[in-house]
Design a protein that fits this description.
The complex is a heterodimer. Chain A is α+β, with helices and mostly antiparallel strands. Chain A has a four-stranded antiparallel beta sheet. The longest helix of chain A is centred in the first third of the chain and has 48 residues. Chain A starts with a helix and ends in a 17-residue tail after the last strand. The mean pLDDT of chain A is 84. Chain B is built from five helices and nine strands. The model of chain B has no long low-confidence stretch (mean pLDDT 85). By secondary structure, chain B is of the alpha+beta class. The longest helix of chain B has 48 residues. Helix content of chain B is 50%, strand content 16%. In chain B, the strands form two sheets. In chain B, strands 1, 2, 3, 6, 7, 8 and 9 form a seven-stranded antiparallel beta sheet that branches. A two-stranded antiparallel ribbon of chain B has the order 4-5. Classes of the chains: A alpha+beta, B alpha+beta. Chains A and B meet through helix 2 of A and helix 1, helix 2 and strand 6 of B.
Chain lengths: 180, 294
């Protein structure tokens, strides 16, 4: 009898604290850590894609850029190592006319028509390569119900842009390299 | 009831209250989280810094490349060399013909041949001077631009320290698969035949890049024709950046048409792993192409 009376309730606070602590960690800190690292991974992937599209824009011909994109895998591997999975990508050429409001978007194989080429009626134009990459960024801790970014990979689109460099003509075909 | 328990508990223990424990722990967790994020940010920021140094290096390379062929000096030199070569060949042929068939013209033909040869020697000396001038001016333009841009890189953040980039290392070369700007010369059938076998590209009818287009009848003279983007239908190729794999070092005393700039940048990640990294960026740019010969 006397033992039960003497038994303090100091442990009760620990039990309450423990529960609250678990709730705090699971529902607040883990999602916070996950979201923070998703942002960091995003910025790393963004930097890498920007660097890569710059390399694509430095190729001799536009077809070479598409070939390089389909055969080069180092950037995907690098993304993988940074915890970012590349699930798809699309490379487009965006041509903006002198007025700024004129704009066309061309995908692989579509030639730039004469009015948009240097010296054409829409000139001077700005030629930009746009690389849109679909990525999946998984959180550090996953599991439980699938909440993108918290417990399951977050699907995102990352874009990189770089001005097309080679605006000269091919001496063999006389055509612009941007159309080859 | 609770107050009584607390008072009793405090009296029994003589200790501080457990109130505020959660606040302290949350604070510790948040601080830890902040440190983790900053460490991660410092590594994420490296890509941002690298893109900046790459942009600067590209700009410096373009500055140098534009300077190399300023006012089409390399293009004009290539064209002059090709025409001088044609003149020497023609003078030699005339001299041979006069020697064999027209004795009264032999002295004049010999004199013209000698003048053409002297002209070729002088032109070669000028070409070498031009090489020195173009390279020095390009280096100087790069140094000036570097001095304008370098301060913009220094960055001190608690988690990232970026130094001023090192002085750029500049090199000059040529680009793979870019022929010379000189179109195949017409008018002397024998020379045309000889050139089409040795020196002229069959598809573009341009002289090959970085060749010493010696004349078979006079092997003492050198006619170095350099690589430079050719004009096509009055379109002059603008200076542009190229991939590193397209760069080729000069093996002979050719005139350069590509400028390569390498720069290093010291980066320290201040929090967490106190790592010092040295980033290296390489920018390569090809000079403005040759202009159309009138």
């Amino acid at each position: 009898m006397s033992t039960s009376k003497k038994r303090g309730q100091r442990g009760g606070a620990i039990a309450e604290f423990g529960t609250a602590f678990v709730v705090l960690v699971i529902f607040f800190f883990v999602p916070l850590v996950n979201l923070s690292f998703i942002a960091v991974k995003y910025f790393i992937a963004q930097g890498l894609i920007q660097e890569y599209v710059h390399r694509l824009a430095e190729t001799e011909k536009r077809s070479e850029a598409y070939t390089m994109l389909s055969t080069d895998d180092w950037w995907k591997d690098f993304c993988d190592r940074c915890g970012v999975t590349v699930s798809g990508h699309e490379l487009k050429l965006v041509v903006c006319g002198a007025t700024g409001s004129d704009k066309i978007t061309l995908s692989s194989g579509a030639p730039v028509t004469s009015q948009w080429l240097p010296g054409g009626s829409k000139a001077p134009c700005i030629y930009t390569l746009d690389l849109v990459v679909d990525v999946l960024i998984p959180p550090i801790y996953s599991g439980g119900p699938a909440v993108p970014g918290i417990t399951s990979p977050l699907p995102l689109k990352i874009e990189g842009h770089s001005n097309w460099e080679n605006l000269s003509r091919n001496p063999v075909t006389s055509g612009y390299f941007i159309n080859e | 009831m609770i107050r009584t328990y607390e008072r009793a508990s405090r009296a029994n223990k003589g200790n501080r209250s457990n109130k505020g424990n959660m606040l302290v722990l949350s604070g510790v967790f948040l601080a830890l989280l902040a440190v983790l994020v900053l460490v991660a940010c410092s590594f994420g920021g490296l890509f941002f810094v690298f893109n900046r140094i790459q942009t600067t290096t590209d700009e410096l390379a373009l500055t140098g490349a534009r300077k190399l062929n300023e006012q089409d000096r390399i293009g004009q030199m290539n064209n002059m060399i090709a025409r001088c070569r044609q003149l020497v060949y023609d003078a030699h042929e005339s001299h041979t013909y006069a020697y064999e068939n027209a004795d009264h013209l032999n002295q004049l033909a010999e004199q013209l041949h000698e003048e053409a040869r002297e002209g070729a020697i002088l032109l070669e000396a000028e070409r070498q001077k031009l090489r020195t001038v173009a390279v020095n001016e390009a280096k100087s333009a790069i140094a000036d631009r570097y001095n304008e841009l370098k301060e913009a890189h220094a960055l001190v953040l608690p988690w990232l320290k970026v130094a001023i980039p090192t002085t750029p290392v500049v090199d000059f070369g040529c680009a793979k698969d870019i022929s010379s700007n000189v179109a195949e010369l017409k008018g002397i059938d024998e020379l045309e035949t000889e050139d089409s076998k040795l020196y002229v590209q069959t598809d573009s009818h341009l002289y090959k890049e970085n060749i010493d287009a010696k004349i078979s009848s006079d092997s003492e003279l050198h006619f170095w024709i350099s690589s430079l983007p050719a004009p096509v239908q009055s379109t002059v190729a603008p200076a542009r950046c190229i991939l590193a794999k397209q760069y080729k070092a000069l093996m002979h005393p050719d005139l350069p048409s590509v400028c390569k700039v390498e720069m290093k940048l010291g980066v320290d990640t201040g929090i967490g792993a106190d790592a010092h990294q040295e980033m290296k960026a390489t920018g390569i740019a090809v000079a403005t192409g040759g202009e159309k010969v009138l």
